[in-house]
Amino acid sequence: MLINYQEYQAMFEVEDRMWWYKTLHDRVITEIKTYTDDYKNLRVLDAGCGTGGLLTRLKAEGLHAIEGFDYNEFAVEFSQSRGLPVSRKDITAFDYPPASFDVVISDDVLYQFDDPELLNALKCIHRVLKPGGIFITNNNAFAVFSGIHDLAVGSKRRFVKTDFDRFLAAFPDFRMVKASYWSLLLSPLILAVRLIQRLQLKLGQINMEEVKSDVSLPSDPVNRFLYGICTLERHLLKRSPFGSSLFLVIRKSDLP
Ligand SMILES: C[S@@+](CC[C@H](N)C(=O)[O-])C[C@H]1O[C@@H](n2cnc3c(N)ncnc32)[C@H](O)[C@@H]1O
Q1: Ligand 1 contact via 71 beta carbon (within 6 Å)
Q2: What is the pTM assigned to this prediction?
């Protein structure tokens, strides 16, 4: 869970414009279009939807059968204030009728759990996903990128692809069809910032009461520049070997 109301407010205020969210949402939409037919009529669930930024973007893309949930009441309220069908549920124990959704998305939620809870979340997602449907998930990657952001968003871990290979072994009809880290091109910059943060933490120069996530809108030229770099990378590299996030598309087989 994010550490406080201000983090949800920050997310709500910037997620339609900030380079990082825009890139993530572009990636999600591209993969939905790649791996499904008739995408506007898909039934889509955003599990751990935060303040509703992705659902808003999906709506703008013409998808109408969308819904979401989040465990935090501020997140639910912010999402509902945008007129989105969002309720309060726990991703590790949620229920809908089996095979209800063509697409389930869960971005930057799973890193808050240890293995048993994470496997419970995957079981719930697997159950509500239709055969042939896809599960899209983005999560923070590589421990070397950990910093103040991880503390602010309640992150317990950072992943590498082989972690998900291991989790998915429990679901024989789940197949990873895409795995890419991002952003490779911004890695040196992100690494430098996070290394300095870790040093400041070690030296006790950071007040733990005031830790904040990286969710903030830079100046317009910087925001455009960072979004441009991420967009270039997205078009140049279908799969990138390194970056602070791991983006996955997992398909549930429709074979009996
Ligand atoms: C970093 S935010 C990501 C939000 C959104 N998916 C996005 O991409 O902007 C993590 C979200 O997970 C939610 N969360 C934490 N534990 C949860 C749980 N057990 N069930 C559902 N949501 C949960 C938090 O409230 C928060 O909104």
Answers
A1: yes
A2: 0.95
Q: Ligand 1 pocket: which of 13, 71, 78, 246 to mutate (most atoms <8 Å of CB)? A: 71
**Is the pLDDT reported for residue 158 higher than 70?**
yes
- DSSP element (H, E) containing 70: strand 65-70
Q: Is the peptide bond before 183 cis (omega within 30 degrees of 0)?
A: yes
User: CA distances (Å), 108 to each of 28, 75, 114, in order?
Assistant: 13, 14, 14
Residue 112 CB–ligand 1 contact under 6 Å: yes
Q: What is the pLDDT of residue 207?
A: 75
Query: Cα-atom radius of gyration of the chain, to the nearest Å?
Result: 18
- Residues 180-206 have pLDDT tens digits of 999 999 999 999 999 998 888 888 887
* pLDDT per residue as tens digits for the range 101-138: 999 999 999 999 999 999 999 999 999 999 999 999 99
What is the distance in A from the centroid of ligand 1 to the CA of 180?
A: 21
Rounded Cα distance between 171 and 185, Å, is 33
SS3 call for 72: coil
Atom of ligand 1 nearest to the CA of 90: 20
Nearest to 148 by CA among 198, 187, 205, 192: 198
Q: How buried is 205 (Cβ within 10 angstroms: 0-12 exposed, 13-18 middle, 19+ buried)? A: exposed
Banded pLDDT at 225 (limits 50, 70, 90): very high
| Ligand 1 within 6 A of CB of 48 | yes
Token duo for residue 55? 């659902």
How much is the pLDDT for 83?
98
Q: Give me the domains of the chain, ranges plus CATH numbers.
A: 5-252 (3.40.50.150)
